[in-house]
Amino acid sequence: MVDTETARTIVGIVGNVISFGLFLSPIPTFITIWKKKTASGFKPDPYVATVLNCAMWVFYGMPFVHPDSLLVVTINGFGFCLELIYVGIFFIYSPWKRRRNILLALLVELIFMVAVVAITLLVLHTTGRRSTLVGILCIIFNIGMYTSPLTIMRRVIQTKSVKYMPFFLSLTNFLNGVIWAVYALLKFDPFVLVPNGLGALSGLVQLILYATYYRTTKWDEPEKPTSEVEISGA
What we know:
By secondary structure, the protein is mostly helical. The protein has one domain. The chain has 10 helices and no strands. Helix 1 packs parallel to helix 4 (70-92). The longest helix has 28 residues, at 96-123.
């Protein structure tokens, strides 16, 4: 019989594979942006939020913060680099107003991350205390990552179109949330369980919306000006 630690490692590896797919799933979206030479209609919110989320989880998984979390570090380190590339593509193919908002958001995230690292290492001197502080922040920003598509979901409901909500991103969001929730339950880790449980729920809602509005989506309809299609966000 497989012991809990072995099962957790196996689930964590599966989680890495699914998370790898999650991080790669927006590639078709960015191919479309590259071909059209414009990011109009697409929103950078989820990708900007994920940059900070991945940075926080990499820090959380460091041995001097939360030992035995190598699988958390590896996948989030990969995700951090890839999300920066995605945000960079948005920056290149966006108008100046959106570029300015993206830069401002990244600057705020950088300042915040530096502050968290400094406080954690200089003020807290045990892995237990460090895990608690960084873990709580990870929950907050992981929830931010999973709820950032709310602006897109709102647009889907208003326009009855899923043209700008990539299916594979929604699917892998759901699967990713489920597998990491299982990982957290095997060796109870509330800091991993809470956000990923919510992530599974968020992904499920997106899949339901996709199934509901797929038939009413006009895939070949000409794009409206940015001012008409954008609801909120950078």
